Structure formats: structure tokens, C-alpha cells
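Please review the protein record below. Tell me whether the encoded fold seems credible here:
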Amino acid sequence: MREQVCLTGMVLKASPVGEYDRRLVILTCERGKITAFARGARRPGNSLMACSGPFVFGKFMLYEGKESYTLASAEVTNYFREIAVDMEAACYGSYFLEFADYYGRENVEAVEILKLLYQSLRALLKESIPNRLVKPVFELKLMQLNGEYSEQPRGNISDSARYTWEYVLYSTIEKLYTFNVKAEVLREFERCVEDNKRRFVDKQFHSLDILGVLVDNIS
């Protein structure tokens, strides 16, 4: 019988397979991005149903196959249920998962990326920091972790926006979401990060399109 492996991670994607199964993409500390199948997870009452959805974070017990894993059980630390019931937070959170999936690699440790993702989702639940600020902070820090960023934003920008940029780059992940900025500084910081993203990220994010529609409707 195959031995189980225990990996700490977060479910980035969950899609139906067959009549009752789910195919999961999990970002793990130890082995980066992996694919796992949760057999029977869509069957009512199945023990894997609750732990095989997006945002679930914890320790996953899996059987390793040649090209994928089979989920046996999980010890869930956080379901992030508060995000799931908040439409705006869910849209931002889904984008964060998709962006992390874009950068995730198989067999490459993802400790820092996973830590950033976890802290960013927690930040979406803070009233002291707007979700609009959490987004560019997450984007810039994730690009930095993957070596895709410019040392300084391009063009002429205010000292406040430049300081915000530098704070994100040089702060630890634990201290990222401990500040706020004025509306005009946020808009400038957003533009700088978006400019950087256009230079280095070659992907159209579906969740970002949905988020754009939601933000426009709220504004």
C-alpha cells in the first residue's frame, strides 16, 4: 500500500470530475503547485466535501501517484468562510488565488508565496485597510517574490507613492498590511503596480474581469 504524504497548502482551484469527484489544484509549502483528486467529494455526506473547496488552508494527507495525488483527508486550519459570503472579498480573493496559480510551479517550494496568499486573504477581512489597497500590495509583493519587478516605479511619482512602493518591497510579509494611504496616493500606487504587471505578466485573469465589473458597479 502506498504511504501517505502530508503537505501544508491551500486549495487554489476545485473543479468537478466525473459524477462525484473533484480535481484540486493545491499550492503547497513543500512541493509547490500540485494536482490532487478528491474521490467522492461531491457525494452528499462525504468527508472530503468541506476540505476540497477553494480557499481551504491546512494540512493535506495525500497518496502520491505518477502525475497527480489522491486526497485521503485534511486537517483544516482555515476555511475562509467569511470571504465566501462577502461578494467583494470573494472576487478579490478569487483573483489572488488565480494570480498565485499563475506563478505556482511544481516541485518548487512555495513557503513565501503561500504565506503571502494567506496573509492577503486575512487582510481582506480587515476593516482598517481597503480591499483596493490589498490588491496592489499583493500583486507587487508576489511579483517581487518571483523576481519580476522593477526596483523603482517608472515615471514621475509623488514621494508618498514611492514610499508606499518601497515599503511593500522591503517589509516582511507579516507587516505588509499594517498601513493605509490617502485616496490619491492609492490611485497613483495602483497605476505604478499595474504598469509593472503589464510588463511582466502575460495573462488575462478571468477573475480580474469580474472584479472590474463589480468595482465599477460599486463606484
